[in-house]
Amino acid sequence: MKRCNDVCCVCVGGEMFRSALGKTLGFVGYTIQYGCVAHCAFEYIGEFVACSGPSMEPTITSHDVVFSERLSRHLCRIENGDIVIAKSPFDPHMNICKRVIGLEGDKVCTSGPSDVFKTHQYVPKGHVWLEGDNLRNSTDSRSYGPVPYALIRGRVCLKVRRGTSPDPSHIHFNL
Amino acid sequence: MKRCNDVCCVCVGGEMFRSALGKTLGFVGYTIQYGCVAHCAFEYIGEFVACSGPSMEPTITSHNVVFSERLSRHLCRIENGDIVIAKSPFDPHMNICKRVIGLEGDKVCTSGPSDVFKTHQYVPKGHVWLEGDNLRNSTDSRSYGPVPYALIRGRVCLKLWPLHHVGALNQSPTGRVVRRSD
Where are the catalytic residues (chain A) (predicted)? Predict the structure, then answer.
């Protein structure tokens, strides 16, 4: 009689374990699936970016949140004047936010406004020339040269203002 | 009698349409889901690459198929002597396959073996110095300078085709890889 009770307890315990394992694996499977779908959405549609730093003032100030769409980058439709998010050439884990001043083949002016002699440079194939809107306080292509197009992540198309703005939900189009 | 038949036909037609639509949407949903999972597998685990060109001979010849793993790149564990697949600095749609000769801060020799005066250059922060194994027939950092680390896609770890050469890849035959003391 005692043995029968022991065997039944082991059976029930084993079944509970299998059921819990099955539910855990199912949960993990769903998480992986939807994580992958979300990753692909951020990769191919767009992502929200929180900017920091003064190099794009007054267009984008520190702690602004912008939406950066990925389609232009994948379809190679980045144009002069677009604001782009790119990977920093000097730190693969950091991103930079600058405006495209010249595309491949364009002639860009590399001298400052106070220089007597104007110097120019042609943007090489597969590269872009980036500059911040706040020219006095921006490290950009004027110091590190043209940036390979493949480092561009996306084009900033919307600004969602945050923080001390009088209208926190104000959304800007056409930066 | 006739009207009843017509209405029944419309009902059956409408139901068949809804059922077909539901199956199509379900199929599309599954395709998107598993496509995303496959994309993330290629993005974070590794991918198969068919190489072409003579710049990495004799280590990798044209029409070889190699497996390039992504983990080293994401964990920043690329080292001197590794063969990497990177996006070309001159064409964002092309990839290049070269060997890492120097990492950021390393001193690389930029002059040829036949030059009298040796010139050197330090690899800037966040960049790597890439060279092909076939030095006479390779366009690499000796012509276009150091390449940003962020352009690296993955590290080649296995050769899969041709079948009689399956296995790990050889060390650099050029002797130009910078040795690190740490």
Answer: 55, 98
